[in-house]
Amino acid sequence: MAPTRNDGRDGCLAFVENHQHRLLRAAYLICGNQHQAEDLLQDALLKLALRWSSVRNADPSAYVRAILYRDSVSWWRRRRREWLSAAPPDQVAHDRDGALRLTMHDALGLLPPRQRAVLVLRYYEDLTEVATAEALGVTVGTVKSQCHAALRRLREVAPDLARDARPSRGSADLANGLEVNP
Question: If you average pLDDT over residues 99-104, what whole number do you get?
Fold first, then answer.
C-alpha cells in the first residue's frame, strides 16, 4: 500500500470539530437565517481548508470569522431586496423573554451588515475593539463609530430594548444628567 499524504488535514479537521458550533452561532447572528448561516459557514470552512497550510500557524478562527463577515456583506449586497407583506405579522404572546428575543432579532435585522457584524463581534464574541478591527479589516476608530451608530439605531428602532437594559431611575437622576448615552 502506498503511503498517503496528510498535508495537515488532521489539524484542519480537529479545528472544524472544535469550533464549528461557535462559528455557526456567530454566522447565524450575522445573517439571521439558519440555512444561510450554514451555507455561509460551509463556504468559509472550505476556504479555510484550501488555505490551511498558510493559516494553521496563525489564528484560524479569526480567519474564518473574517470570511463569514465579508461573505455575509457580499451576499447582502447581491440580494438586497425589500419584502412586502399583505398583512402585518401575528402578535407575539406575553412571553417576555421570547418577545425580547424577537425584538432584538428584528432590530438587528434592520442594521446594515457592517454594524451588525461589529455588534456581534464586540458583544456576542466578546472581542476587544482591536480584535474586532482586525477581524473586519478596518481601523479601531471605524469599529467605535460603527458600534456607536449601531447602538443608537437599536435604541431608535427598539425602544423596549433600551428600557429593559437599564434599571429604572427616578426623574431626579435624569434631571442631573446622569443618564448613560441618551
Answer: 77
Residue 12 near residue 49 (C-beta atoms within 8 A): yes
Residues in CB range of 108: below 8 A, 6 or more apart: 29, 32, 116, 119, 154
pLDDT at position 9 is: 78
Average pLDDT in the chain: 79
Which grid coordinates belong to 95? 412571553
Q: Which three cell numbers stand for residue 150?
A: 449601531
Q: CA-CA distances (angstroms) from residue 134 to 63, 70, 142?
A: 10, 13, 11
pLDDT digits (tens, 9 = 90+) for 16-39: 999 999 999 999 988 888 999 999
* pLDDT of the residue at 38: 93
CA distance linking residue 29 with residue 49, whole number of Å:
23
| DSSP type of residue 180 | S
Grid cell for residue 134: 482586525
Angstrom distance (rounded) from CA 161 to CA 177 = 21
From residue 163, alpha-carbon distances to 5, 122, 159, 166 in Å are 58, 21, 7, 6
